[in-house]
Amino acid sequence: MRYAMAIDTKKCVGCGDCVVACQTENNVPHGYCRDWIVERVDGTYPSLSLEFRSERCNHCDNSPCVRCCPTGASHIVDGGVVLVTPHKCIGCGACIESCPYDARYPHPEGHVDKCTFCIHRVEKGQNPACVDVCPTNCLHFGDLDDPNSAVSLALKDRKWKVLAPEAGTKPQLYFLT
Amino acid sequence: MKTRRDFIKISTVGVGAAAISYKALGSKGFGLFESKLEGPVSDEDLTPYPTYCEVCFWKCAAWAYVDKKGRIRKVLGNKNDPHCNGRLCPRGTGGVGMTYDEDRLKTPLIRETRNDGTQYFREASWDEALNKVADKMKEVKEKHGPEAFGLFNHGTPGGQFHHLLRAYGSESNAEPAFANCRGPRMSAYFSTFGAYVGSPESTDIRDTKCLVLIGSHIGENMHNSQVQEMSEAIDNGATIITVDPRFSTAAAHSSFWLPIKPATDIALIMAWIHVLIYEELFDKDFVERYTFGFDQLKEHVKNMTPEWAYGITDIEPEQIRRTAKEMAGAAPAVVIHPGRHLVWYGDDTQRARAMAILSALLGAWGKRGSLYFAEGIKIPEYPQPHYPETKWGWRDWNGDKYPLATMGITTELLKASIPRLNYEHQVKAWLIAGTNLPLAMPDKPLFKEAAAAVEFIAVMDTMPMEVTGYADVVFPEATYLERYDVIRSAANREPNIALRMPAIEPKYDSKPGWWIAKQLGERLGLHDYFNYDDYAEVIDWQLKKLGTSLEEMKKIGVKKFPRKSGPLYMGEGEDFEFNTNTGKIELYSVDFADHGFDPIPKYTKHPEPPANFYRLIYGRAPMHTFSRTINNPNLSDLMSENSVWVNPKVADLWGLKKGQEVWLKNQDGAITTFPVKIRVTERIRWDSVYMVHGFGHANKKLSRAFGRGAADTEMITNVMVDPIMGGTGMRGNFITFLKEDPALNRKEAKA
């Protein structure tokens, strides 16, 4: 089992609904976020391209944050989901520094926080909150080992890219282009 | 200038109690996350209550999930609702922030004057505030007649006050949604097809092969089901053609982006029409069978070639031909989106007419993938006496002007309130419900003069919006998550209704709009129009007439009904009578000709920016609705201020840097109250700038919104009025940059 997410940049409008849905679902304090939108513009007027990306933790196969965590608070569970156990976290911030995606932030309670792929929902067979709310239906989640999962189907006939492949982290967010 | 009614910022409430209650919440956090360590709550531990969203006008049906402590944890879309299909937009998802915004209006407020002449708001009981407004309504009725009491309204709560005013004897109402927004297309589509496109618009984007957006920025306006259907259209490989001087989100997702020179859209559309006709690409059978005036149209567009349009629009002739052919190839499955906020240059009804004519030539009406025949449910009228006759109403302000206006014009209501303008029918007092006029309307000086002139203003809102500062009495309204409201019924593919009920009790001393209207009604002796104790009784009575009940609707939220008006689309070659003068689709408008307007649209050249000025284009951001969401804790977190977009060439010329704060000054010398940050981006033309509307709040009590960004409406002092329906064209304003704080110069300018 390998959970992953595909994000369709041809459809994303960068509305930020994924961000609000995550905040309300996971009680993320205002001023912080576990997912965010990147807008990238290339070219000069009027030969332009624009890409919106809904980004979050890449739940990397080779995750530097887990390797560098001195207390074992950062860990990987079934399906490859990277999690932080708040009461084990001493807030040293090494994981924040090590992440090439800037996916982690210091929670005001003193521990580090990040996207959990809404594991509490996934365990019940639901999608992450961001996936279920997206008005353009541009987020696809599921098990890569299941050829019929939403993420497998989304990746099947499309070109995709991952972010910072050079970091060697084997990220599990796939951006459909 | 000192007026009888000084503008009061609610921040200056001079009452100890108010100050304490504001502080009581503390400075840390915004109230939503008081118990910090609480993680996500399992859906099974939450109780869902049906509602429909009031953060914008799309009114998506949703479930508000309440935890065991009585707190709304999240709001999720109702899967059975065609407005949202179970997926709310960011504003709907963040709608809970409207309820838990600690800056909300908390108690009724009454304007008072101190001995030294300064004015302030005093907290009052509901009884006192209601009596004061009711007494004033009685007084106006006796002195001037009930018609002299005007109403500005918007959204669901506005409807309750509309009912109150009608029962009281006034039809002097106007809402910005008409003359400041979608009025032009109402008049245009009605005169062409004898029908309106409705809200949500009956655009069959889901099944279209070609979607044409003329200045419509779907994706930045989060008109939910349309955004969803555009996404489906992308999946289906539909061609999307976007016409916009700005590289909008929709433009980025389009097959063709036509970066048009602003104010020239009609020329492009007429050139498209020329290509369709003279290259014989139009739907001949459809045109012959259903339209009137083709020969006149053909003659009219004879010289409106793509080459002619190129010189006007900057769009290459080949692009014009190619996109016309794309449309023809996809016809009739083409959606020429009728647009929503159309009031740009004062000839907007004509532009919308051109869009309607283009649709007709493509046979793109009543066909799969074009505009479908929507059907709605008529909500049974709760028993009440007839409304009294009125001696005059909003139509009478227009006189011979704006003959095709179908609703009250906000600027006319303002003008009718100013004695020096000598309107025959003058308005002496206002109720304002659910609209923040100073930020919503162009020409702020006009608003200020009118507000100073009327004898009395009562405002109902959930937030201390700027408009409350002009009020004599402020009513704090409960948010949509705390109240019953009218049953939602909007025409759609499948007729449907949605229920809104309170998920929690109203916070603070706020009350639902229906309750406030009823209390006033009772005090005015209008009990027969408010013959219920709780609005739930009205809803239940209506639902039972519709074959359901409040009890059932509480469980399902949305109910769909079978269609009765026939199929969604026209049959092949079906006889069809259009509700126009000729019974046909009027390519040549008999109605317009009768009223002395161009029966076929013409391109008119509009003024261009003078040297060192740039055309102000404004629009929406997906996480905000006008000015009403800027202070919402959830949504301000996504976007807390606007910026002014400038092309890198312009930035170079002015030496402007990313993030630099500037003040804007327009052609009439108006200067923004607050500075706004520069965004240097290729996404905007070099002759224009772009701002997201709704920012630049001047009330300190809006702790997150105050002074964040600048208000586009402050720069809109030149209003180009549409002679056909009174639309207030707002895109004829030009701005320049002030790099230094103009505070000192500003004083001189005022003097």
Automatic annotation (TrEMBL), chain B:
Q: Provide this UniProt record's keywords sorted from A to Z.
A: 4Fe-4S, Iron, Iron-sulfur, Metal-binding, Molybdenum, Oxidoreductase, Signal
Q: Domain 4Fe-4S Mo/W bis-MGD-type spans what residues? A: 46-103
Query: GO terms for molecular function, please?
Result: 4 iron, 4 sulfur cluster binding; metal ion binding; molybdopterin cofactor binding; oxidoreductase activity
Q: Name one Pfam family in it.
A: Molybdop_Fe4S4
The superkingdom listed in its UniProt entry is Bacteria
Record's SUPFAM superfamilies?
A: ADC-like, Formate dehydrogenase/DMSO reductase, domains 1-3
- Family per record: Belongs to the prokaryotic molybdopterin-containing oxidoreductase family.
- What is the recorded name of this protein? Molybdopterin-dependent oxidoreductase
Q: Lineage of the source organism?
A: Bacteria, Pseudomonadati, Bacteroidota, Bacteroidia, Marinilabiliales
